[in-house]
Amino acid sequence: MENLLFSLNATIPIFLLMVVGYFLNKMNILDDTLASKLNSFVFKVSLPLLLFVDVSKSNFKDLWDTKFVVFCVVSTLISILLS
Predict the structure, then answer these.
(1) What is the pLDDT of residue 54?
(2) What is the CA radius of gyration of the chain?
(3) pTM over cut 0.70
(4) pLDDT reported for residue 78
(5) Would you give the distance in Å from CA 2 to the centre of its chain?
(6) Which one of 23, 29, 54, 62 is least enclosed by Cβ atoms within 10 Å?
(7) By the 8 A CB rule, do 35 and 21 touch?
(8) 1-12 burial, b for 16+ CB within 10 Å, e for fewer?
(9) With contact defined as beta carbons under 8 Å apart, do 15 and 46 qualify?
(10) What share of the chain is helix, strand, coil (3-state, %, to 5)?
(11) Tens of pLDDT along 27-73?
């Protein structure tokens, strides 16, 4: 449950910005050029900054799970080889 809350705290603010942008575009307050620039800003500046702040607050010694990390690495390698 803690991991779910961590993930939601990292993604919900970005999702809400996207929803606000969608409605501002529908009301013709934002044009496509500005929306494109704001989208670029969100994904190149805001999201990395938000993720950095969230990760910097984490205690990796308490969260580290070797079995899970090995599973993720092996799964990734298998899916790369299969593709």
Answers:
(1) 84
(2) 18
(3) no
(4) 96
(5) 16
(6) 62
(7) yes
(8) eeeeeeeeeeee
(9) no
(10) 85, 0, 15
(11) 988 888 887 888 899 889 988 998 899 888 888 788 788 999 999 99
Torsion of CA 7, 9, 10, 13, to 10 degrees: 140
Domain count, the chain: 1
Task: Note the pLDDT of residue 14.
Answer: 81
Look at the chain and count its residues.
Answer: 83
Q: How many C-beta atoms surround the C-beta of residue 69 within 10 A?
A: 10
pLDDT value, residue 70: 95
pLDDT for the residue numbered 47 = 86
Q: Which H/E stretch holds residue 71?
A: helix 66-82
In angstroms, the first-to-last Cα distance of the chain is 32
CB half-sphere exposure, 23, CA atoms < 13 A: 5
Q: Cα–Cα distance between 15 and 21 in angstroms, integer? A: 10
Which tokens is 38 given? 């704001």
